Amino acid sequence: MKLSLVAFSALLPSALALWPLPTGLSNGSTPLRLSSGFDIKINIANAPADLVAAVETAKGYLANDKLQALVVDRGASSASAIAKAKSLPSLTLSLLSTPKGPVSSISEEAIAPLESRVEGYTLTVPSDGSGAVLKANSTLGLYRGLTTFGQLWFDWDGTTYTLSAPFQISDAPAYPYRGFMLDTARNYFPVSDILRTIDAMSWVKINTLHWHVVDSQSFPLEIPGYTALSEKGAYSASSVYTASDVKNIVTYAAARGIDVVPEIDTPGHTAVIANAYPEFVACPGSTPWASYANEPPAGQLRVASKAASNFTAGMLKAAATLFPSQTFSTGGDEINANCYATDNETQASLAASNQTFAQALNTFTMANHAALRTEGKTAIVWEEMVLDDPVTLANDTIVMVWISSDDVAAVAAAGFRIVHSASNYFYLDCGHGGWVGDFPAGNSWCDPFKTWQYAYTFDPVANLTAAEATLILGGQSLLWTEQSGPENLDSTVWPRAASTAELFWSGPGGNVDTALPRLHEVVYRFRQRGVAANALQPEWCALRPGVCDLLA
Amino acid sequence: MKLSLVAFSALLPSALALWPLPTGLSNGSTPLRLSSGFDIKINIANAPADLVAAVETAKGYLANDKLQALVVDRGASSASAIAKAKSLPSLTLSLLSTPKGPVSSISEEAIAPLESRVEGYTLTVPSDGSGAVLKANSTLGLYRGLTTFGQLWFDWDGTTYTLSAPFQISDAPAYPYRGFMLDTARNYFPVSDILRTIDAMSWVKINTLHWHVVDSQSFPLEIPGYTALSEKGAYSASSVYTASDVKNIVTYAAARGIDVVPEIDTPGHTAVIANAYPEFVACPGSTPWASYANEPPAGQLRVASKAASNFTAGMLKAAATLFPSQTFSTGGDEINANCYATDNETQASLAASNQTFAQALNTFTMANHAALRTEGKTAIVWEEMVLDDPVTLANDTIVMVWISSDDVAAVAAAGFRIVHSASNYFYLDCGHGGWVGDFPAGNSWCDPFKTWQYAYTFDPVANLTAAEATLILGGQSLLWTEQSGPENLDSTVWPRAASTAELFWSGPGGNVDTALPRLHEVVYRFRQRGVAANALQPEWCALRPGVCDLLA
């Protein structure tokens, strides 16, 4: 069959630019535009300041997005329909019930225990010229609804419009944890990059920034009482997140419904601690590094040393005070046995205390978790702490499965709550070749590149019983930064992290074919807001939903 | 063996930050700094304006690069040596012989016939406080030498210094063509992105921008007399390179020693021409697209139509007037036989003229090349015009081999000059998954990602006789932009395109292990100059040459 290009030029129906797709959505096909006097009202006595600020931000996006519809004529053929459309005068926010005490802020609700967060909302946008209504049981839910409201609109010649009114949306996330992990240790990211990333995360309802803040290569975190770590371990004096920077970041995130979960990996990935505290680190800089660590430089905390253990617990406890989150990751991945086997001090400590390494690791880890618990923190660990180097984790520990999604079932069988972080689906850094030197044909260890489509097809409950499935908290995209920095942050993360955000908000089973036009709209809207999201296809395809499909 | 981190903190010798590596280089280990009154003098009567401007630009880089050495202490331990170093008062440029007429400008020499360009130079930088001397047989050679001079220096606390004086450099390229190809049709790039890319290219002595300016998806080039093509074929009115934009780009490039070689692909990759001239295009938008083209939308110029042939020759001739280059690519890749087999008009034309398709293609192509020759242009084609859809190319035609480096020998056996452009080594877009829709497990057709290391190990004369080897003009990196745009331009292209630039300037056989520290310096210097080059490794590795090698 032949189809002339002229047919392609006709106006195709605009996809609904909603991402993640609301779990309950009905809409019509009536044009509607924002009134020139459009306002957002908060019908809540003594509304929290962060909700007031969020409304101002939402109004700013409505005024400045200026996103034309992704159709061939960008909206021109709808001009008269838009001009004749009724005007939406307002959006009114209200809570479904009035709390007895003060209304909780978005920031407070963003860091509440995961399973207790209320992110659902209902949003009604009539097409008859009456006002829109957003309701929720929480300010956090209202914030999510505001985000959705901001995605309904396109611009034509200065008019902010939709062709798809009325809307009736009843939405809530499938999973409580929807995250993005950023490694700021392999390469440093200025605070401004992190704040911009937080904004972008909020636009697709990601609610957790898993901040892998330090690692063997650098220690950019200023911890009260332990400032030598960053003074001697950051790449430079200007490559440090000061306590003030951290407060800025966590405050900014919380106001956008995002919990910042810090990770200080232990006992591996800690070579840099030797710069300040050489006595606590085994095999620092040992070579060949590949015999002592998965990547250079080698170096692990001396788990069998009482002094090192006390130092670590104290340092973690001090770090925990910087972060309001109720969770804190102590890592626990990639522990190298040879490093300890060849460390005379570790062997002497084990002999003196008549402990095995496994016993010492258990004591060390439990002391760290106990210290964090005194600060009100629940521990998060990588999967090895269950499967490879098992310790006696508290039942409430959250486990991140990264090596392979195949390992999820074993962690679930052990009864722990799980955050999907599998390298074979969610690692954004894969597929760019080997980064170690003197390795001309080196491949990425986690080849191939993880496309948005592939992550989108992930099944969060594969191979799990119904009971085990309840242990799944959600999942996240992850960016390890051996081959990344501020230069490629936006284009590497976006829109792929949005794909995973929809998977865990809207639930699995989405169709990549119908998702693609909406994801293009994410890309183009992100760019309008200053985030350099990467092209998924030629613009020709972005303007013609379905026409560049494999079998189209 | 164990090595403590303390040892890593010691100052390692700075790599020489030269890229591409000069073909003749000797240097010492004497500190030297730029005098506070340092000046660059042009000892040439009536020096061309572009050389004067290039000197000002070079002085700007010297003043503003502020690149600290890539060593652990960033230069601190050299502070006293730097403070005590002798000062370089000046760099003096001169020509080795005085021409009878006016001195040729860089811009004139940049577009001279490839084999006649003179890019060599000698550069002497004494360590005794006497002035540096740059000599060449051409202003283009002086420009290359200026670029090298600008790479000798680091910054410590406001002092611009080297630890490696004196320098004696005698340099000239191994190959005359060192290119970068940019596709501006799949996604559009603003002029500012192209100008920034030209600057970056000049820093590593790339001398050709192969501009794949239009393709089936969009026609962003305004051609005098054929403006309907861009009016109806560009993504938007603002996504057009006007004649004025093109003049700006080619002028900017030439002044930086770069020839802009345009490509208007024919007869395939031309669906968009149907927007303005539907009568000249076979199978426009035919579906399923995969039966009619390698990517959507389908559409090819009607090679058997006299009117289409006249149109094409006229359009190419008009386009040629925009570009001062002496070469022009008419493409010729991926001709789809089914498109023509099912096009009634093409079949009728062939029958009426009693021609085969091959004969018609030959007539069409020869007419185009003849039209270009009246404008003084030598034709460039893709390899299919020799191997798959052979036409009677003039002996001086330049052939780009893209499908596989395995095809080079066959093209060389046919006696044509060759530009290496093989997808299996030089395509910068590979490895990011399939981009067509409804294809969740789709791979990149040219997987895997092409690392800088892999391109660096390419042998330009593999499987060629000595005589055939003389046909190799050089090679280039290429960025097709189905999955790229301004957002990832810098980080996708740099530093990988620099790797290929060194391969074809310094010649093959380079060692990736010793190249890596220098390539880090390219990355960091590019960033200082506003080009967002991508991280190759953690900064920890960048500051410790060799320590992150595979077997280190």
Structure keywords:
8-stranded parallel beta sheet, 18% strand, globular, disordered N terminus, 552 residues, Chitobiase, domain 2, homodimer, 2 domains, TIM Barrel, alpha/beta, 33% helix, beta-N-acetylhexosaminidase activity (chains A, B), 5-stranded mixed barrel
Written description of the protein model:
- Two copies of one chain form a homodimer.
- With 552 residues, the first copy, chain A, is of the alpha/beta class.
- Chain A folds into two domains: 5-171, 2-Layer Sandwich (Chitobiase, domain 2); 177-510, Glycosidases (TIM Barrel, Alpha-Beta Barrel), CATH 3.20.20.80.
- Helices cover 33% and strands 18% of the residues of chain A.
- Chain A has helices at residues 5-9, 49-64, 79-84, 106-110, 139-150, 191-203, 227-233, 243-254, 306-320, 337-341, 344-353, 357-374, 384-387, 408-413, 423-426, 452-456, 466-469, 489-493, 496-506, 512-528, 539-542; strands at 25-42, 86-95, 121-125, 132-136, 154-156, 159-171, 177-183, 208-212, 259-263, 281-282, 300-301, 327-331, 378-382, 398-401, 417-420, 472-479.
- In chain A, the strands form three sheets. In chain A, strands 9-8-7-16-15-14-13-12 form an eight-stranded parallel sheet.
- In chain A, helix 6 packs parallel to helix 8 (243-254).
- Chain A is globular.
- Chain A starts with a helix and ends in a 10-residue tail after the last helix.
- The relative contact order of chain A is 0.12.
- Chains A, B: Residues 175-507 form the Glycoside hydrolase family 20 catalytic domain.
- Chains A, B: Residues 1-17 form the signal peptide.
- Chains A, B: This is Beta-hexosaminidase.
- Chains A, B: Belongs to the glycosyl hydrolase 20 family.
- Chains A, B: Its EC number is 3.2.1.52.
